[in-house]
Amino acid sequence: MPEKAFQDYYPEYYSHCYGCGNKNEHGLQVKSYWDGDEAVAHFTPEKHHLAFPGYVYGGLIASIIDCHSTGTAAAASYRREGRTMDTLPPFRFVTASLQVDYLLPTPLGPQLHLRSRVVEIKERKVVVETDLIVEGKKTARGRVVAVQLPDHLAPE
Amino acid sequence: MPEKAFQDYYPEYYSHCYGCGNKNEHGLQVKSYWDGDEAVAHFTPEKHHLAFPGYVYGGLIASIIDCHSTGTAAAASYRREGRTMDTLPPFRFVTASLQVDYLLPTPLGPQLHLRSRVVEIKERKVVVETDLIVEGKKTARGRVVAVQLPDHLAPE
């Protein structure tokens, strides 16, 4: 049995996200996993996800960094409480701010690898830094400030 | 005849971008226009562009800010040289860094309005700040550092 991704533990209400919801059939379905203290995701863009011929669209890079980071924020919060991700209440983080630095053009074709570290963790706020690596080169760097979904936006 | 958008002046090679290329049939096809000294774009997300039920996916917001900003950087560079956008050589900017602050959840359904200002302009670097407005409320704020596409990535 393959390991379940962070996003596969999201309650149904939170599983429709275009970037990572496993119920969004039009979406990107980002899947994140622990690798020791880092969180990883692997993503192969579609041919139409280009900026110009041969290179990945920057908005796609921002999108996968975003979802991988909020997923990592949730997973890290369970870990901090000593809970597994199938326990209640669920953690669900949203993005307060997203910063992406594009260091090199990202070639379109090979699988992209995201590797994240939690650099700050509080009860309602988690900061995650991410490297985007393709063919051994770091082509982008992200920083996401994730905050717990406000109660008034959560389902009753 | 409706006014041509900034992106409709891009040479064919640059018209395949997932975010704004008018030749990318799978893409978002962001269209930007001058409104005085500000650049505007209007975009209505699809139903599947959600973060959770009722709200727009943050990665989509980052994507449309990104493309609207690089388009604005190009348009502003023509203006700076006193040229119209149908003259050569073409300007084409890519994103060096993208910052998005999500101020409020953005409701999914109504048209989104992007409104940008050029805050710094040099020959090869333009900084653009953008407000995302929906139903009269500013729900996100973006800042893009755009740089001219390096010569080695441009077509011969």
Topology:
Two copies of one chain form a homodimer.
Chain A: E1 32-35, E2 38-43, E3 50-52, E4 55-56, H1 58-80, E5 93-102, E6 112-121, E7 125-134, E8 137-148
Question: What does this 3D model show about the protein?
Answer:
Two copies of one chain form a homodimer. Chain A is α+β, with helices and mostly antiparallel strands and 156 residues long. Chain A is 15% helix and 37% strand. Chain A has one domain: Hotdog Thioesterase (Thiol Ester Dehydrase, Chain A, Roll). Chain A contains one helix and eight strands. In chain A, a hairpin with a 2-residue loop joins strand 3 and strand 4. The N and C termini of chain A lie far apart (33 Å). The model of chain A has no long low-confidence stretch (mean pLDDT 95). At the A-B interface, strand 3, helix 1 and strand 5 of A face strand 3, helix 1 and strand 5 of B.
Helicity of chain A, in percent?
10-25%
Q: Spans of chain A of 5+ residues with little confidence (pLDDT < 50)?
A: none
Total number of strands of chain A: 8
Oligomeric state of the chains in view: homodimer
Integer-rounded radius of gyration of chain A: 15 Å
Strand content of chain A: 35-45%
State the domain count of chain A.
1
- Element order, helices and strands of chain A? EEEEHEEEE
Going by CATH, the architecture of chain A would be Roll
Order the strands across the largest sheet of chain A as they lie in space.
1-2-6-7-8-5
